[in-house]
Amino acid sequence: MNLTAFDFVLYGVSLLLLLFINAMLVVCEISMVKVRYSLLDDEEMERLRQSRRVARLLDRGGQIAQVLRFGVLVTTVGLGLVLVPTIFFLIGSIEWFSTQPGKTLLVFFTFVLTVSLTSIFGFLVPRGIALAYPRDSLRFSSWFILGFITLVTPWSRILRRIAGLILQPFQLKLREDFNVLDYEVQIRALGEEDISLSPRIRNLLRNALRIRDLEVSDVLLPRNQVKYMDITLPVDENLAMARESGHTRFPLCEEDLDHCLGLIHIKDIFRRKGQVSDLMRIRRNILSFDEADPLEKAMETMLQQKFHMAVVKDEFGGTLGLITLEGILEVLVGDIQDEFDITEAAMVRPMGKEAFHVDGLTPLHDLEEALEINVGDTEAATFGGWITDELGRMPDAGESFTLDEPPLAVTILEVDEKRILSATVRVRSDDEDEE
Length: 435
Known about the structure:
Layout: H1 5-36, H2 42-48, H3 52-59, H4 61-91, H5 100-132, H6 134-167, H7 183-191, H8 199-210, E1 221-222, E2 229-230, H9 235-245, E3 249-254, E4 256-265, H10 266-271, E5 287-290, H11 295-305, E6 309-313, E7 319-324, H12 325-333, E8 348-352, E9 355-359, H13 364-371, H14 383-391, E10 400-403, E11 408-415, E12 420-427, H15 430-434
Helix pairs in contact: 1-4, 1-5, 1-6, 4-5, 4-6, 5-6, 7-8
């Protein structure tokens, strides 16, 4: 390849420009993660968001993630295209490199040099700067990244549309790109390499971050499992039900849960030594949420207003069930039990021949521990919710099917209108997988 001195200078400038672009993309990625999850207080975050460019980046994390991944791919390919003629210009005139072994070695050397330059100047150095000065790095890179988004986004959308059309005949959907604010990245940003986080703490952090994607319906206690007091029944019957159930809070209703009037706390009855003639006189207010309300918002409201229980309504105003503050906290830390809780039957019970009877409300971490499997990344918190997500529908009672990852054979035993009640589950062997 014959290049002039001007061509060599042009390729050199292009090389530096591509390295700069790659470095800016990495600086933005790492600084966004570090800033958003380094536990800045509200005042510090507000000062940082005074820059409109920075505020736009923090508010558009999903779109930024797509552009960053696409931009790094483009610059990496561009570096290879620029380095090939540059290296040929420098050493291609040597006679030995005109032979077939020399050309092969030259290509290999170009590949190694591209990876090395990109790793050092396009990733490691910018990453170190972003981790040391995340706020300054984010301010500095924001002007470039927003301009880069404007130029690259149309191209990226066209390519994603084409990829979606290619996957459509296979009934596959194009999932979102790697997110710079992915849960694992957030956990690493909180911990960094010099801090060893136990599996339990990592799981707690992961659950705390995932709660933003959950809705009230994900922790719903279905109405067929709700114990409530009925003002149309004698007070003695209601108190007998309360003693038998062992709960401390009950919705106060008129005939059914669709007509909820308030909340009865068993403590208010004890204060009157059980001498209560009218439940309406001791009722408390009760919160109400829609099933699609964000779980994080519901938790904040219940904590602020000091409510431990709330009614969940559907779009027509009917009651779907209840949520409790304890149920929300169990999404974060797992089952919460104290010495007064009645020991319940195991939710995952062996049935012989490596099969298990699994309750639909079994937390996924309990299922993973009992069956020694890993269900992977999912937004579901229970076995029933996970199966419904995997199938994309509510299965029928008696229906049997298999899952590939993890390799399970599942038979649905009981279902109701809203959820899976129970199923049998068996881990498939390697021989079955081959068949």
